[in-house]
Amino acid sequence: MGRRRAPELYRAPFPLYALQVDPSTGLLIAAGGGGAAKTGIKNGVHFLQLERINGRLSASLLHSHDTETRATMNLALAGDILAAGQDAHCQLLRFQAHQQKGNKAEKAGSKEQGPRQRKGAAPAEKKCGVETQHEGLELRVENLQAVQTDFSSDPLQKVVCFNHDNTLLATGGTDGYVRVWKVPSLEKVLEFKAHEGEIEDLALGPDGKLVTVGRDLKASVWQKNQLVTQLQWQENGPTFSSTPYRYQACSESGTFLGLGTVTGSVAIYIAFSLQCLYYVREAHGIVVTDVAFLPEKGRGPELLGSHETALFSVAVDSRCQLHLLPSRRSVPVWLLLLLCVGLIVVTILLLQSAFPGFL
């Protein structure tokens, strides 16, 4: 019996590092590249249209946004604004998708059109600020503000996230500093040293608190630049003499937890119990760089079909894979209520039979 395999949803012409799903449009956004090295490997952000075709979830290239010499290593999404970590900078992008009117697509020039791109295809790159038209859907992507967010000797932005109302943006990188910026002006409002060494991940809470995890083996909670509490692996985590461990990521709570490993494996767990529901060993065969769930709102339920959840994964192997969790069998609520009522009726009848004067 062969190894379990996940279906390949899309293959890009460059290594993939970051992934987001827009719930309102159902767009899957994958980004990466070969960086500034003159290897011939391009850099870009690909906007993929998710559709159900013959009962299966598929993806086709809707728009390819060229990022020139900068590979996108991390992404955050807030409505129609993307924050892309590119080298030591954060670049804001705005994308707008809307239905075409009339036969506009037929009248558009051939440079703005193209066949549906499936996995393995080499898509054409599009310049920023242009529209791509695709079977009734238009997508326009434009560059907004950009700002340098890391200032170490080898600067690199490693993580970016928005706050709950999308008015602020937080970044972290190799210099260990957290920097908070207004959106969309990217005016800096806060800066402080959070970790000795690289910041691995961060999250902004609705109460204004900030959670950071770093390569210094610490996880910290901040109120602005004031430390509220801190965990350290050597003090709060299990001890393994031969294997080094560190806090790696801050994850939002939800029904499921998606995991990608350095060996390319992908798993789905129940968030509250960590029961493993899905596991594909070495799905990518190389480090998984990002995972994202299909949202439960917007177009998510329509695209999900009869499955309980869908997880997308990307890796340096340039592939985007789809991991579907079938709906688990459960007893309908109405049937449980009916059984309870029946049990009560049977109990009353038995009592009446055993004790004639019971009622």
Descriptive notes:
This protein is mostly beta strands and 359 residues long. It has a domain at 333-358. Helices cover 10% and strands 47% of the residues. It contains 4 helices and 24 strands. The protein has helices spanning 104-107, 233-236, 300-304, 333-354; strands spanning 8-11, 16-22, 27-33, 43-53, 56-66, 72-78, 81-86, 89-99, 131-134, 137-148, 157-162, 168-173, 177-182, 188-193, 199-204, 209-214, 218-223, 226-232, 256-260, 266-270, 276-280, 288-293, 307-315, 319-326. The strands form 6 sheets. It has a 5-stranded antiparallel sheet, with no helix packed on it. A 4-stranded antiparallel sheet has the order 1-24-23-22, with no helix packed on it. It is globular. The N and C termini lie far apart (63 Å). Residues 103-128 and 246-250 have low confidence and may be disordered. Residues 103-115 have a biased composition (Basic and acidic residues). It is a single-pass membrane protein. It comes from Colobus angolensis palliatus (Peters' Angolan colobus).
Q: Pick out the low-confidence regions.
A: 103-128, 246-250
Count of extended strands: 24
Cross-sheet strand order for the largest sheet: 6-7-8-10-9
Overall 3D shape: globular
Report the average pLDDT across residues. 85
Structural class: mainly beta
* Oligomer description: single chain
| Beta-strand content | over 45%
Per DSSP, the total helix count is 4
Q: Describe the main β-sheet briefly.
A: 5 strands, antiparallel
Output the radius of gyration.
24 Å
The ordered H/E elements are: EEEEEEEEHEEEEEEEEEEHEEEEHEEH
Please give the share of residues in helix.
Answer: under 10%
Distance between the termini: 63 Å
Region (Disordered): 101-128
Family: Belongs to the WD repeat SEC12 family.
Transmembrane segments: 256-280, 333-355
Pfam families: WD40
